[in-house]
Design brief:
By secondary structure, the protein is an alpha+beta fold. The chain is built from 8 helices and 22 strands.
């Protein structure tokens, strides 16, 4: 009995020390990145910016029409390296959520990537997505615009390597003036594998080169050049949205532009949400955090969600009262939203 009485205070002290250690462990940073549902933003709403009220998607130079309904872009909230820290407590909390997205940061970012680099990349991607959304909307509405294309880099086995240089502007191919990416691709395909005569502008002077053409694994003809682009639009578009980065709002920006520039409303009084990158030709591309975005949209009351086709398999749960449609192009998204109620018999993600 005497031995037991002597051990009790010591056992209490050990227990207290363990409790303190466990408590402090909760605040140790981890190497994990956490993705959680983020806020949604109605692209048809008015917002306060620069001391005045603006349409979130503001158009100058084209006739616009009243809108009705909501077209929500969706976001995810990201914490963890390299942009911030994720504590053990946070990781455990999110692990207990219904659809956790906890990933080692090393699988998402190259080694030694800094937070500033990620933030800058996301900001640039957002700017690009806005330009591509304008291009896609104008393309859909059959309105002309100019897309200037520049050589950015080359594939390892590019037939153009050593002939073209980075920053060369592509002016024409086989005598056809190039005013957009799709036109460039089509002109090269029309050559049926024969070398093409490409006129470029380098340091302000035009010059013409014969560029060999290679056939890719998919059977298309290619010159192996990665492209950058600049747009010249017949309208001015300002998008007033702060603290959101990345390219995933492209589809919803495009739908908002079309809604405002056409008499018939795309939203048509409904609460629609979605996500997806957009290319000038209307291709809808995959994004990150799809399940978290679906969850965020449902919590705000959206009944229709537009999801990139390539993300469908990642959606493990569709909330009650919501239908998630699979879209691969802008035309598909418009077709779905234009279909009469009860006749929206299109592929879904479920």
């Amino acid at each position: 009995m005497d031995v037991q009485r002597k051990l009790r205070p010591r056992a209490k002290r050990v227990g207290a020390y363990l409790a303190i250690v466990v408590f402090l462990t909760m605040f140790i940073p981890t190497p994990y990145t956490i993705q959680a549902p983020g806020p949604t933003f109605d692209t048809l709403e008015q917002v306060e910016a620069e001391g005045t009220t603006h349409d979130m998607v503001e158009i100058d130079g084209a006739e616009t029409y009243p809108t009705k309904g909501r077209l929500d872009l969706t976001t995810i909230s990201v914490s963890g390296p390299p942009t911030s820290s994720s504590l053990v407590l946070e990781v455990l909390f999110h692990a207990l959520q219904p659809y956790p997205a906890i990933t080692p940061a090393e699988l998402l970012y190259p080694p030694e990537t800094t937070g500033d680099e990620v933030r800058n990349q996301n900001a640039e991607a957002m700017v690009d997505s806005q330009s591509w959304a304008v291009a896609a909307a104008l393309e859909h509405l059959d309105k002309d615009y100019m897309q200037r294309l520049f050589a950015l880099d080359f594939t390892e086995d590019s037939p153009a390597r050593g002939i073209l240089e980075p920053n060369d502007e592509i002016v024409s191919v086989n005598g056809t003036e190039i005013t957009g990416h799709g036109q460039l691709v089509n002109t090269i395909q029309d050559a049926q594998g024969e070398p093409v005569e490409m006129t470029i502008r380098r340091n302000g002077a035009e010059q013409t080169h014969t560029i060999p053409v290679a056939q890719g694994e998919d059977g298309t003809y290619q010159v192996g050049v990665f492209l950058d682009s600049e747009f010249e639009f017949p309208i001015d578009v300002d998008i007033f949205l702060e603290d959101v980065g990345g390219p995933s709002a492209g589809l919803m920006f495009t739908l908002a532009l079309i809604d405002r520039m056409t008499e018939e409303s795309v939203a048509d009084g409904r609460h629609i949400a979605g996500t997806g990158t957009i290319d000038p030709d209307g291709t809808v591309g995959p994004i990150g955090g799809i399940q978290q975005k679906v969850t965020a949209a449902a919590s705000e009351g959206a009944s229709i969600f537009l999801a990139p086709e390539l993300n469908c398999e990642e959606i493990t749960h569709v909330p009650d009262g919501m239908t998630v449609y699979s879209v691969d192009t802008l035309d598909t998204a418009i077709e779905i939203l234009d279909a009469p109620e009860g006749e929206m018999n299109y592929p879904t993600c479920s």
